[in-house]
Structure formats: structure tokens, C-alpha cells
Amino acid sequence: MFVTTSFHPGIKELHEARSLASSLGVPFIQRERDSLVDLFARTGKKQVIIVTKKGWRYEDQKGDQFFFHPNMSALRIKHMMKGEPDALVASSSMEPGDQVLDCTLGMGADAIVSSFAVGEEGKVVALESQPVIAALVKQGLKTYMTNRKELNRAMRAIEVVQADYRFYLRQCPDRSFDIVYFDPMFRETVQSSAAMQMLKPIANPEPLDEDSVREAVRVAKKAVLLKERPKSGEFERLGFEIVKEASNYAWGVIRKKEGRDES
């Protein structure tokens, strides 16, 4: 992999590209007048991150792309502002002021909705194990502008940490978050979801493990939440009770009461 810019970059884009390349430990390549095809051939690399005035974009030699966009979070927040329930918020009993640990940031939509739900008094810490996804989504959450101040505030308030939840959870004190949330990559992604198809080539494919669930139960005060395929068998394997089911996915929960789990 390498980092480059769009044609005719400004000082800001050049600085961002060099800093990003340094943080990822990959080369920065001057774009000059070369096409991406030329750059792939010249460097022998198969993936690139392109820093532009409009944002950062990952692209590979096959043309697969990944870039940040709030996606369905904008519509979900719009519905919540009308008093309509959101499945994630309702399933976890999320409230204003809650501290939420999102263990699988991905595209960031659920973290954004959670950030809106917990409000200014709450906090969302979002983990992402894959460095490229973490870098692009973190930058997008900081810089993507909409005409809705509630959505902008929710994005800016999220703390993104590039870390594997398997190790991060072990370092967390008991009951240090109200809610711990997992949304691992489905073995079979939803074909109708362009966002998921865009994410899949660079996402972490590892399934959720029992040790991490036990750590999450220790860390959570209120609930541990899992989003998975309804017939995946993961809810039963990991001890979650399905509380809401849709056609393509379901929500499972392990609720906490007085420090003890009641799955």
C-alpha cells in the first residue's frame, strides 16, 4: 500500500498525505501527472489511499473503493428526532449520559447513532482493528459536514481508537462502560448494502469469540449487545438472547442487573 494525493494538491492535502503515510508505515508517493494505473505499476503496490480536498479514499488495483459517509445514520437520527425508536438504542436500553464502547466501528453508522442517543453528557468510544478503516473513518467523523448540527455534533463527539477489542477489553476496569456493542462482519454480507460490500474487502473477518464476550460482560454496567444474522447460530453459541429481529439481521443482548448478567 502507499498514500498519494489527487492532482494539484494544496499544502493541506500534502501535509495530510505525508502524515497519514507515516502513521500507517507506508510510502508517500508524489502524484504528479500519473494515473492510478501508472502509480500501481510504478510502485508494484496493489492498494492506495488518495488524499483529496473532499476527503480520503482507499482504492485497490481492482477498483474496489472505501471512503467515509454517514450512510443510514442520518436517516435514523432524523427518525429519532421525531420520537421514533431505533433498534440499537431500544435493544440496549441506551439513554442520555451513557458511556458506550463500540467494539466494531466499521463504517461508523451505529457509533454515530449511539453518540446522538447518549447526547453531550454521554460518550462513545469506538474501536477498529483495521488501520486503514480506523484512519479513514476517524478523519471522516472529524471533517464530514452536513447541514444538520445534531448529526455533525454526534460525529465529532466519537472517540476512535485503532485497537483490537480482544486486547482492549482486557485492559478496561470492571463496569467502566454502560453498554458494550459488537457488530462483527457477517460471514455473508447483505448484498443490497453498497456500504457493506465496500467495507468487506478490508474489514476484519474474525468471528466474535467467547472470551471477548466474557470480558464485555465484566466491563458493561447495563448490557452487552450483538448484531448478527438471525440464523447464524452466533446468538446461541455466545449466550445472547434475541430481542429484535429483522429480515437481514437481529439484535441479541446480555443484560446486567446489579453487576450480574442475566442472558
Q: Could you explain the architecture of this structure?
A:
This protein has 263 residues and is an alpha/beta fold. It has two domains: 63 residues, 3-Layer(aba) Sandwich (Rossmann fold), CATH 3.40.50; 189 residues, Rossmann fold (3-Layer(aba) Sandwich), CATH 3.40.50.150. It has eleven helices and twelve strands. The strands form two sheets. Strands 5, 6, 7, 8, 9, 10, 11 and 12 form an eight-stranded mixed β-sheet that branches. A four-stranded mixed β-sheet has the order 1-2-3-4. Helix 3 packs parallel to helix 5, helix 5 crosses helix 7 and helix 8 runs parallel beside helix 10. 37% of the residues are buried.
Instruction: Report the strand count.
Output: 12
Considering the protein shown, what is the CATH homologous superfamily of the largest domain? Vaccinia Virus protein VP39
Which percent bin holds the helix content?
25-40%
CATH topology of the largest domain: Rossmann fold
Under the CATH scheme, the architecture of the largest domain is 3-Layer(aba) Sandwich
Question: What is the approximate shape?
Answer: globular
Structural class designation: alpha/beta
CATH class of the largest domain: Alpha Beta
Protein name: Class I SAM-dependent methyltransferase
Keywords: Methyltransferase, Transferase
Organism: Paenactinomyces guangxiensis
Pfam families: SAM_MT (PF04445)
Main attributes of the structure:
24% strand, 2 domains, 12 strands, 4-stranded mixed β-sheet, SAM-dependent_MTases_sf, 37% helix, Rossmann fold, 263 residues, Class I SAM-dependent methyltransferase, alpha/beta
